[in-house]
């Protein structure tokens, strides 16, 4: 059945008899969005928000169109995200458009009658307090929350401006990764990406040592192919804990990718002589110690945060950053796993507010893993 677009004036109401089967103490949750503050409205159990939304849609004969194929799930927290699916849900649970129309006709007759209604006329299901409540809900429901979500993130900026002023991409609100009872949509992904971008930029800004890596890469004008091959060379590095056979295999694979780097530079810079190609390879390989130093420093920083419980760090994130040192300490008990002032410079943290990270390291990506 095709539900989009949904002309409110054309949809017939469903059987109202199902309401008579509900006792006053059962099922008093909104059948549209699940709000627990619900009552009987227009032939079904509904909250004041969905009641007002349905009434406005019928009175004003609004037509809504779903952008996601009429498959949106309507829950209380995000019931305003898709009005087309919300109206469709209203009809599915038994809201009666004729009840709304008869209520409107009743209001018209009252307005055409006495200017001061008697107490008997004023009494009824719709009291003055309820009407005032509906008016306040109407004002809230009329707000286009999709526009507010669009204000939470912004991607129409240059990358230079985003890195200089990350706050224009997203506000520094605590990241929220909630298990919602619905499928995420494109807006959720966009907002999460923007907030994660700001989080990454702020985290990188705390580490001034990245300049020792970024500036040489910028001066060399490193291209994407060189960058990818450099990451492969970092991956295939010889470790003292490997067996002799393992070391030989890693060296063999590493030499293969060094040859690939040589041919790549020859292809990208055909005017280079063999000596110039070798010089460029040497400059690229000289970056490896800086990368390893940054990776080690990040591990130390993470353990520092765990030591003073600055980021509620535990579980998998801590194990990833402490695994290497733990293995070394197990092999050589004389090695002491320390975080010294040389590794963690508290001045680099400045006045940074840890609450910007949501007081959890779970949302902070690993830059060492990003480089590797």
UniProtKB/TrEMBL annotation:
<dbReference type="Pfam" id="PF00105">
    <property type="entry name" value="zf-C4"/>
</dbReference>
<dbReference type="Pfam" id="PF00104">
    <property type="entry name" value="Hormone_recep"/>
</dbReference>
<dbReference type="InterPro" id="IPR035500">
    <property type="entry name" value="NHR-like_dom_sf"/>
</dbReference>
<keyword id="KW-0805">Transcription regulation</keyword>
<protein>
    <submittedName>
        <fullName>Zinc finger, C4 type</fullName>
    </submittedName>
</protein>
<dbReference type="InterPro" id="IPR001723">
    <property type="entry name" value="Nuclear_hrmn_rcpt"/>
</dbReference>
<dbReference type="GO" id="GO:0008270">
    <property type="term" value="F:zinc ion binding"/>
</dbReference>
<dbReference type="GO" id="GO:0003700">
    <property type="term" value="F:DNA-binding transcription factor activity"/>
</dbReference>
<dbReference type="InterPro" id="IPR001628">
    <property type="entry name" value="Znf_hrmn_rcpt"/>
</dbReference>
<dbReference type="InterPro" id="IPR013088">
    <property type="entry name" value="Znf_NHR/GATA"/>
</dbReference>
<feature type="domain" description="NR LBD">
    <location>
        <begin position="1"/>
        <end position="324"/>
    </location>
</feature>
<keyword id="KW-0539">Nucleus</keyword>
<keyword id="KW-0863">Zinc-finger</keyword>
<dbReference type="InterPro" id="IPR052499">
    <property type="entry name" value="C.elegans_NHRs"/>
</dbReference>
<keyword id="KW-0238">DNA-binding</keyword>
<keyword id="KW-0479">Metal-binding</keyword>
<feature type="domain" description="Nuclear receptor">
    <location>
        <begin position="27"/>
        <end position="102"/>
    </location>
</feature>
<feature type="region of interest" description="Disordered">
    <location>
        <begin position="101"/>
        <end position="131"/>
    </location>
</feature>
<dbReference type="GO" id="GO:0000978">
    <property type="term" value="F:RNA polymerase II cis-regulatory region sequence-specific DNA binding"/>
</dbReference>
<dbReference type="GO" id="GO:0005634">
    <property type="term" value="C:nucleus"/>
</dbReference>
<keyword id="KW-0804">Transcription</keyword>
<comment type="similarity">
    <text>Belongs to the nuclear hormone receptor family.</text>
</comment>
<dbReference type="InterPro" id="IPR000536">
    <property type="entry name" value="Nucl_hrmn_rcpt_lig-bd"/>
</dbReference>
<keyword id="KW-0862">Zinc</keyword>
<keyword id="KW-0675">Receptor</keyword>
<dbReference type="InterPro" id="IPR049636">
    <property type="entry name" value="HNF4-like_DBD"/>
</dbReference>
